[in-house]
Amino acid sequence: MPADKPDRPDSTEIRIADHEFRRFRDFLYRRTGIVFSDAQRAYVERRLTDRILAAGSRSFSEHFARLLVEPDELERLISAFTVNETYFYREDYQLRCLTSNLLDRITARKRRGQPIRLWSVPCSTGEEPYSIAIWLLENWSRVDSWDIEIIGSDIDVRALDAAQDGVYSERSLMRLPRPLVAKYFTAMDGGRYRIDEALRGSVQFSQVNIIDQADTGRWRDIDVVFCRNVLIYFDDMARRTAANNLYDCLAPGGYICLGHTESMSRISPLFHVCRFPEAIVYQKPWEDSHA
């Protein structure tokens, strides 16, 4: 007698038809703003098939139905499609701009006791908001004179869990000077390092989808948004939506820092371009024309 067929399919048995691919791509876009082209179909199918098998589903249609009613599986799927590759002190020229220029302008218009609010979104696994905290401690002489709120947000709850855990590989620390690694991290087994407990407590983490106004609407009066290397994955409509949402989150006169390959000037006319020696950033006007 032939051997019984395994109860679970393998990757060669999962077929995704053209209309299913388009349906899934549209669904992921609506949830995340991330756009995948037809040319990226093989990549999408590979990630999706891995998720279907890992979840124990037998087909695309079965798995898609689960995505609509199982928030945990939806979170795992989003994690599979979001990019969380980063490291400490990435694009540190913007950190130099923060302490050389932006904070002077921000504190000039604040009263003592008013917090300075810095937002890293998406923050991935925490390298950026922790980099901001370390940079301020090391490079801003007035750090103890102001109430500084650092917020890290991401759509990926698994990335946020890792950020709150604060354990990093050597690769994540490759740009951080070794004296700072020794100062702010504890070595663990397996070449890993845990960030100082006080630093972990200095960052507030939360889940936010930047194309969802209900999500971003929870945040207001942000002085500087670091939103780097995410808009490149969006189409024009999603970029404009994200830009409008972030604009609403900023305090009048607040700033947004994008990745070095991104330009707000090509996305939205709402912001003023500010050219500093260290970086180009974008400022919400003092008079809010978007209100």
Give an account of the 3D structure:
It is a single chain. By secondary structure, the protein is an alpha/beta fold. The protein is 40% helix and 16% strand. The protein is built from 11 helices and 10 strands. The chain has helices at 18-32, 41-54, 60-69, 71-81, 93-108, 127-139, 157-165, 178-184, 197-200, 213-216, 236-249; strands spanning 116-120, 148-154, 167-169, 185-187, 192-195, 203-207, 222-226, 250-257, 272-275, 280-283. Strands 6-2-1-7-8-10-9 form a 7-stranded mixed β-sheet. Strands 3-5-4 form a 3-stranded antiparallel β-sheet. β1 (116-120), α6 and β2 (148-154) form a beta-alpha-beta unit. α2 packs antiparallel against α4 and α3 (60-69) packs across α4. It is globular and about 65 Å long. It starts with 17 loop residues before the first helix and ends in an 8-residue tail after the last strand. 33% of the residues are buried.
Which range does the strand content fall in? 15-25%
Count of alpha/pi helices: 11
**Can you write the helix and strand succession as a string?**
HHHHHEHEHEHEEHEHEHEEE
In round numbers, the mean pLDDT is: 91
User: Could you estimate the helical fraction of the residues in percent?
Assistant: 40-55%
Which word captures the global form? globular
Strand order of the largest sheet: 6-2-1-7-8-10-9
Question: Termini, distance in Å?
Answer: 74 Å
Structural class: alpha/beta
Number of strands: 10
Radius of gyration: 21 Å
| Major pleated sheet | 7 strands, mixed
